[in-house]
Design goal:
Blueprint: E1 11-12, H1 28-39, H2 41-44, H3 46-57, H4 71-75, E2 77-83, E3 86-93, E4 98-103, H5 117-122, E5 125-130, H6 145-158, E6 162-168, H7 170-182, E7 188-194, H8 200-211, H9 215-229, H10 239-242, E8 248-256, H11 264-272, E9 278-283, H12 294-303
Parallel strand pairs: 1-9, 4-5, 4-6, 6-7, 7-8, 8-9
Antiparallel strand pairs: 2-3, 3-5
Length: 305
């Protein structure tokens, strides 16, 4: 459990402030136009508008690309697998008996977590990563926690015996959804969650506020979400409610105090949902830069056993 007052930090960054807007947000003019549409024309065609809102909600935006290659990128074995009619880019390193799965965050890609690969290979592991739907080199224009989890399901069947998961941001939610909704019998030895969100409800209502959905359009949009995730209410998607349905031997969370996308208090909530877990707090890196810090990478690898 985490103390109410946290005074000791795992890593502190004294050199540069974190970026205020870490995700590639829609330009303000598009936000204004989107709200204008849903507040006027959208109200006249609520069913079509709810479906459009779902498309907007599920669109990751510009795909992350590598501006230059490096030794780790070049050493990855690349292939494509078919999931739900889409081409999913798969990356693997090594061929050890123990398998570690890397799960990237929103508007990112599987190779964003490649910093963990050398240390994991030194432990005799095989490391597996992929670009989620509509991310990186994978096809498609939409993604969601469910679609992400369905790819995990295919990956797990292709590489049975995955015993360790290292996830960033929404990758945590995708694993929890997969392990509770799609394959509750799957057991792993260890999970490392970096910048893990605690609530799908917050994500949903932030999207509703951003698009300015109201009245019937808002109600229909929420129903579109429930149908997509195959649930009857938003409470069924609360991560803290899903977590007790499965067991993991060792769980470690890393979270930055200055994360402006997922606050530290939310990280504490999801961490406390596990019967036994640890939380390592950092400061000054925000939501994305933390995952690439050499000290964090070294610590995570040292925890993998």
């Amino acid at each position: 459990m985490v103390n109410e007052t946290i005074s000791n930090y795992f890593i502190e960054n004294h050199s540069a402030p974190f970026q205020k807007n870490e995700l590639n947000q829609l330009p303000k003019v598009l936000v204004v136009l989107t709200r204008l549409y849903f507040g006027t024309i959208g109200r006249l065609i609520p069913k079509l508008s709810a479906k459009l809102a779902m498309r907007i909600f599920s669109a990751p935006g510009p795909k992350a690309v590598h501006k230059r290659s490096d030794a780790l990128l070049d050493s990855a074995q690349r292939s494509f697998i078919q999931v739900n009619g889409q081409q999913i880019r798969l990356y693997t390193w090594g061929d050890g008996p123990r398998k570690t799965l890397l799960l990237h965050g929103w508007q990112s890609r599987g190779t964003a977590l490649r910093g963990f690969v050398p240390g994991l290979l030194d432990q005799g592991r095989q490391v597996i990563a992929f670009d989620a739907p509509a991310h990186g080199e994978s096809s498609g224009g939409e993604c969601s926690v469910r679609l992400y989890a369905e790819v995990i399901d295919v990956i797990e069947k292709k590489y049975p015996g995955i015993d360790t998961v290292i996830a960033h941001s929404i990758g945590n939610a995708a694993w929890i959804y997969y392990n509770s909704m799609l394959n509750p019998k799957k057991q792993i030895k260890q999970m490392v969650g970096i910048a893990a969100p605690e609530s799908f409800k917050n994500i949903l209502y932030n999207a509703i506020a951003l698009m300015g959905l109201k009245g019937k359009v808002k109600a229909l949009f929420k129903q579109e979400c429930f149908n997509h995730f195959k649930v009857e209410s938003i409470e069924e998607l609360e991560l803290s409610q899903l977590i007790p349905s499965f067991e993991i031997d060792q769980v470690d969370f890393f979270h930055d105090e200055d994360d402006n996308l997922v606050s530290l208090d939310r990280a504490i909530q999801v961490q406390n949902a596990f019967s036994s877990s640890s939380l390592w707090v950092t400061k000054g890196f925000g939501h994305f830069r933390l995952v690439k810090h050499p000290k964090l990478v070294q610590k995570v690898v040292s925890l993998c056993n």
